Amino acid sequence: LRTQMQLREAIVRQQFEVYYQPIVALGSCRLTGFEALVRWNHPKRGIIGPVEFIALAEETGLIVPIGQFVLREACSQMATWRRRYADAGDVSISINLSGHQLGSPTLVTDIEQVLEDTGLAASAVKLELTESTLIDDPTTATRILGRLRDRGIKLYIDDFGTGYSSLSYLHRFAIDGLKIDKSFVDMVGRDDRKAAIVPSIVGLAHNLGMGVVAEGVETPQQARELTLLDCAEAQGYLYSRPVPRDQAAALIERRI
Ligand code: G
Ligand code: G
Ligand code: MN
Ligand code: NA
């Protein structure tokens, strides 16, 4: 399974779905947004996670139509939620962007079109890019991301600290926030040098006026330590796994 043909067929048959994982404010635990995470709803195999097809989608460039679907679906959903729930006016949607998408000549107009069609405010959208995506073609990235940011879209670095981190690009790409990779979050509260990494990233974000989200938070102890470190937001199984649309809507309704 998972050949290029099957992936193409899945696109044609519209078998992709968007799941939503809550992001919360540490301290209050109030919902601040969702990360959109794609799933393949296979007629025989059921829900297939991205680890099983994202690499192939990247290799074949099929991540472009898949990513375009995720963008439209997630923005449309968030626009609906913002209209339906009076309390959801400040809930944001985070969307992963691959290098291929960044290289697509129609990315900016695609996003503009989606915002226009759905009526979603640009300020509701956070795009997540990895360090490697940014440094792959920095000239193109600077131009494209500059145009997106001019429209009010926010840019976050995903898996921060795991790639070829260069502090200069935080400034160059006018980054709005960092998502601290789970591998570092797992070190919080440890009794050795590794424990110093997360406070350093949080401090960096603060000093540069950026947002900061801890990823993969699984225990109340981690949440407590991160709150003490003044990390603004968190995401992880402690709060919720990525969930289908209706369960996400229930979370907004209760405004966890
Ligand atoms: O739950 P999780 O298994 O959802 O996702 C695994 C990885 O797949 C994530 O780290 C993320 O980088 C990637 N991923 C999930 N959804 C998307 C998407 O819509 N676009 C891209 N480019 N990557 C995604
Ligand atoms: O885009 P990114 O690579 O950050 O995608 C987030 C990935 O991390 C998704 O695969 C998501 O399912 C996963 N994830 C989110 N929270 C947790 C968590 O608390 N523990 C673990 N093990 N994985 C998580
Ligand atoms: Mn992500
Ligand atoms: Na991540």
UniProtKB/TrEMBL annotation:
The keyword Hydrolase applies. It comes from Enhygromyxa salina. The chain holds residues 438 to 693 of 701 of the full protein. Residues 1-256 form the EAL domain. It comes from the Bacteria. One of its GO terms (molecular function) is cyclic-guanylate-specific phosphodiesterase activity. The keyword Cell inner membrane does not apply. Keywords: Hydrolase. This is Cyclic di-GMP phosphodiesterase Gmr.
